Amino acid sequence: MEIAVLDACVLFRGGVRDFLLWIAEARAFSPAWSTMIHEEWMRSRRNKYGDPTSRLNYARSQMEQAFPGASFDPEPATLNTISLPDMNDVHVVATAVAAEAQTIVTYNVGHFPDRALAAIGLRAETPDAFVSRILLVAQAEIVEGARLHRASLKSPAYNASAYLEHLASQELVQVADVLKAFQQLI
């Protein structure tokens, strides 16, 4: 099963985070993160939306409980060997190295150039590109994860068609389009 580091900009967005975690729950991939990644998305949510610390800590603890062993703190020596356009993102690559991940799932793909990642066997993809790619090998798991995700949404609840529109509105356009073929299972 592929291991993918979920960058702070992905965890920051609750709808995308929840979708990815539900498909991970269904075993489409294995998520990974670090203390620094958690601190970054939580700080950003608090600063942008004023989310209470207790609510953010609860979300983090639920993630840690659902995916024990998903947290990888990078080795300090690794941090010094990586060069990126935005050096504030080095910890994300170092987390991927520590987790032995294949992918960094991020909206900031430009922060992780292929020339820097290819040498260490990594790629950076948006959530939409990542899920669209792994659909080829984890179709049943992604469909099941989408079913579980839709069932978890209560306020508002979505029928299958509205749910796919919801995914598309979360910048998961390709995923929503592919999942139309499985709408009766979601």
Word description of this protein:
The protein has 186 residues and is of the alpha/beta class. It has two domains: 3-22 and 30-134, 5'-nuclease (Rossmann fold, 3-Layer(aba) Sandwich); 139-185, no CATH class. It has helices at residues 8-11, 14-25, 35-49, 53-66, 76-79, 90-99, 114-117, 127-134, 139-152, 160-169, 173-179; strands at residues 3-6, 30-32, 103-105, 123-125. Strands 2-1-3-4 form a four-stranded parallel beta sheet, with helices on both faces. α10 runs antiparallel to α11. It is globular. The mean pLDDT is 94.
Keywords:
alpha/beta; four-stranded parallel beta sheet; 2 domains; 186 residues; globular
List the helices and strands and how they pair.
Layout: E1 3-6, H1 8-11, H2 14-25, E2 30-32, H3 35-49, H4 53-66, H5 76-79, H6 90-99, E3 103-105, H7 114-117, E4 123-125, H8 127-134, H9 139-152, H10 160-169, H11 173-179
Parallel strand pairs: 1-2, 1-3, 3-4
What's a quick, concise take on this entry?
The protein is an alpha/beta fold. It has helices spanning 8-11, 14-25, 35-49, 53-66, 76-79, 90-99, 114-117, 127-134, 139-152, 160-169, 173-179; strands at residues 3-6, 30-32, 103-105, 123-125.
Based on CA atoms alone, the radius of gyration comes out at 16 Å
- Quickly count the domains: 2
CATH topology of the largest domain: Rossmann fold
CATH architectural arrangement of the largest domain: 3-Layer(aba) Sandwich
- Average pLDDT works out at 94
Tally the beta strands: 4
